[in-house]
Design brief:
heterodimer, A: mainly beta, Sulfite Oxidase, Chain A, domain 2, 6-stranded mixed beta sheet, 5-stranded mixed beta sheet, globular, B: 249 residues, alpha/beta, Elongation Factor Tu (Ef-tu), domain 3, 5-stranded parallel beta sheet
Amino acid sequence: MTTPPISRGFRGRGRGADTAARVPPGQHLVSDFPVLSAGPTPPVSLRDWQLGLDDGDSPAGAWTWEQFNALPQTDLTVDIHCVTTWSKLDTTWRGVTIDALLAAAGLAEPPGPFALIHCEGGYTTNVPSEDLVDGKAMIATHFDDEPLDPEHGGPARLLVPHLYFWKSAKWVQRIQFLDSEVPGFWEENGYHIYGDPWREQRYDGD
Amino acid sequence: MTATETPRLAWRTATVRAVIEETPRVRSLVLDVPGWPGHRAGQHVDVRLTSDDGYQAQRSYSIASPPETPDIVLTVERLTDGEVSSYLAGDVRPGDTFELRGPIGGYFVWTAALGGPLFLIGGGSGVVPLMAMLRHRAASASRVPATLLYSSRSEADIIYRAELDRLAGQGDGFRLLHTLTRERPPGWGGLARRIDRAMLSEAGVPPSDNPRIFICGPTPFVETAATQLREIGHAPHLIKTERFGPSGR
């Protein structure tokens, strides 16, 4: 590896030693919660809201807003990392884990090794099924004890905090389990197929 | 894991060749980037600064230059407390170096071959990737009808003003609409309020024209414009947005 050029006169803020171990390479901490989306924030009506779970092309489970909210709720406090280089520590979420969703659908495990997440407005993202289970991911409806704002993905978004945050897709509608990996929206547009912030997998080829 | 082998986007050394003061808070850096693979209008780069003690900081910036010119131009607004922007839009001078990799992003992109009409809506330094599109349109002699609705705080905050005026004066189908939200000079003939539904309706790009819409600016600006355009009847899939929060850059 070659030595990077020194940017003359650049000091930077440095990092607090207490949090440095929690900030992946190339990331910096923020205290606010920036919004990033590819298009307009869609209006989502709770009356029409539905979450589906598909095994390939076959429906394996579906929940209305009321049915979904009757499922076991989990609180999660996690650090999140956006590919645009901000990280935010100790964010608190509430929702339904994918484990609970699978159980509610009567499934002992994901019916395929890969998942494609479908959202309002046609947005998709792909996540390996093993990254969704064992408490690693949820469908989140609350942030900081408040219902999720529409611009942050409300009423419900996927939360997969150990991957870059574009994988935590907003306005989620359907989780489709598949036998093979299908790249989602950003993954088709130059971003990494997996997106591990600790390995700095930002872009295709990283 | 990748299905097709894509080489990693390499960090390249950028050398500042010239610095252009655009406004009191905004400057453009003209960069030499040996080995630059080329880009499309609307794409961005990641910039990485390294201090003499090895500390590094990394941020994303839109490319302002069109694909047709050999230089890479970044236009950077100095943010209060901006760790990287206060360096790039403050301390940097010709001859300085930093790292850069890209181009990044395949979505918020326009090429002349995509056609139009184009409806560009920029707030503050959100005009940067839109300027790359307009420069590409001019450099490729495209006659695609294009409208830029550009919101600035005051006249002094308008970035690229002279160049935009010149492009708008060429009579080749590019229309320029300025709006100033805070301070207006005496005799200001342009619009004088925040972007709203009426302004978006009256900008002369009706939904029936199926314009390709690109909106870039601070989050509340983009949220408002995108929501109102959808309510006016523009198809959501034709509305592409790029938001930046106070810490997003």
